[in-house]
Amino acid sequence: MITLTATEENYLKYIYQLGEAQSGLVKTNDLAYKLEHSAASVTDMLKKLADKKLLTYTKYYGVSLTKTGLHIAKKVLRKHRLWETFLAKNLKFTWDKIHDIAEQLEHIQSDELTDKMDEYLGFPKFDPHGDPIPDKQGNISIPNVICLADAKLKKQYILQNVNDDSAIFLKYLNKIKLQLNDKIKIIDKEEFDETMEMLINDKMRITISNDAAKNMYVKSI
Amino acid sequence: MITLTATEENYLKYIYQLGEAQSGLVKTNDLAYKLEHSAASVTDMLKKLADKKLLTYTKYYGVSLTKTGLHIAKKVLRKHRLWETFLAKNLKFTWDKIHDIAEQLEHIQSDELTDKMDEYLGFPKFDPHGDPIPDKQGNISIPNVICLADAKLKKQYILQNVNDDSAIFLKYLNKIKLQLNDKIKIIDKEEFDETMEMLINDKMRITISNDAAKNMYVKSI
DNA sequence: TAATTTTTTTAGCTTAGCTTAAATATTTTA
DNA sequence: TAAAATATTTAAGCTAAGCTAAAAAAATTA
Ligand SMILES: [Mn+2]
Ligand SMILES: [Mn+2]
Ligand SMILES: [Mn+2]
Ligand SMILES: [Mn+2]
């Protein structure tokens, strides 16, 4: 059981998340942007992680996680999302505050703690942002969702997932009183800029931009 | 609000704990022993913490915490003991396993988290080892206890506190089935080596060495 | 009190994880 | 396809936090 530093764990986590979005191959500059480090620092660390056989690194080409690297990345994500669940559900934190604290808690090293937390929380499958929580074996429940930006007129949906964990976006959702599991009916979609008019829980009318809609995922009902 | 590294926080915490036991003045070698670092490393760090006005450092003489240093030390101890309480009470960890995990959790930076945990746990005054948990203001409940080694023959006591958080000592207590809040009646004390014979909860007879008794604190009933 | 032992500090080195600036490889554009 | 732009790596250097070995101060012992 190798133990990595918080820095190394963060690299693996972001490589996993960037790789998921793309083909699996992650570029130096994309990581540098995510981590807010210089590209030179990223190159150094990628070589180090490659030496440790946590990823395969091809100069000028990009990296992808090895089996071991993937396993660790998922474990970090599992811890992050379990802690977010605890902070929101048990401690009543608002969802815009949980991410930054979970960024610290995700690096606590104790498998027994992780598994006991999982049990304590009732083995949740999704975190407070609707993101899937990997189980002990690394299995992930893929929710059957579509992007709200692609939702159809007149149809009804449930808000399942937000794709942006930043405090600024989540505070905006708080302000317009939109929450996970709210019922959404698309009333109108402006042809010019794709601004959407929606009815929330059959009573509240709101209007959101296409930029906002792109960050939300819904399930049709 | 200055933020310290985990290393700096550990120094302040141990200086506080060593200073409590002694006059308040802490020596380089005592810290080196506690932290398992070389004395040279300790000297370096003490100078650095003195520069930050967290302690007063006099060459060859020793250190003592400033008001700011004391405040931070108590906050770290507060977090450590709140987390230990959570791990034992809520997650059902045995008391020999909680300390090492709390050593990591005590460095999570979020006053809001600390205070919400305190509330979630019902504002506990003592941790699972019987150590006092500083409140938000840094106030500490001093328990009215005596060392079990000094306990009187035939008298009855309640086990309130253990003074050694090491897994090896706590596992020993598990083995002899001795727990916090157990009732202890002193049956005999051997003159030769001060070995004690005791009746636990009016039914179980055990014999413990003076070394063990020195690590336990009791309240008379 | 002088010698010896112990404690503490100083000096010089190492590693992890970052930086900027310069060099080089790749990709895009004209 | 050659020039320009962009992406990536290399080189050199910094800070935090550790180390060992040597020097210096303080404490103990003879
Ligand atoms: Mn998050
Ligand atoms: Mn999340
Ligand atoms: Mn402890
Ligand atoms: Mn404790």
The CATH architecture classification of the largest domain in chain A is Roll
How many discrete domains of chain A? 3
The largest sheet of chain A has its strands arranged as 3-8-4-5-6-7
Query: What helical percentage do the residues of chain A reach?
Result: 40-55%
The CATH superfamily title of the largest domain in chain A: Ferrous iron transport protein A (FeoA)
Cofactors and ligands: manganese (II) ion
Q: What secondary-structure arrangement, pairings included, does this model have?
A:
Two copies of one chain form a homodimer.
Chain A: H1 6-21, H2 28-35, H3 39-51, E1 55-58, E2 62-65, H4 67-90, H5 98-105, H6 111-120, E3 146-147, E4 156-162, H7 167-175, E5 183-189, E6 196-200, E7 204-208, H8 210-213, E8 216-220
Antiparallel strand pairs in A: 1-2, 3-8, 4-5, 4-8, 5-6, 6-7
Helix pairs in contact in A: 1-2, 1-4, 2-3, 4-5
The structure holds manganese (II) ion (4 copies).
The structure holds a DNA duplex (30 and 30 nucleotides).
Task: Outline the structure in words.
The structure is a homodimer of 221-residue chains. By secondary structure, chain A is of the alpha+beta class. Chain A has 3 domains: 6-65, Arc Repressor Mutant, subunit A (Orthogonal Bundle); 81-142, Arc Repressor Mutant, subunit A (Orthogonal Bundle); 146-220, SH3 type barrels (Roll). Chain A contains 8 helices and 8 strands. Chain A has helices at residues 6-21, 28-35, 39-51, 67-90, 98-105, 111-120, 167-175, 210-213; strands spanning 55-58, 62-65, 146-147, 156-162, 183-189, 196-200, 204-208, 216-220. In chain A, the strands form 2 sheets. A 6-stranded antiparallel sheet of chain A has the order 3-8-4-5-6-7. Chain A has a two-stranded antiparallel sheet with strand order 1-2. The longest helix of chain A is centred in the middle third of the chain and has 24 residues, at 67-90. Chain A is globular. The N and C termini of chain A lie far apart (45 Å). The relative contact order of chain A is 0.10. The interface between A and B is medium-sized, with 18 and 18 residues. One manganese (II) ion is lined by residues 81, 84, 127, 129, 131, 165 of chain A. The structure holds a DNA duplex (30 and 30 nucleotides).
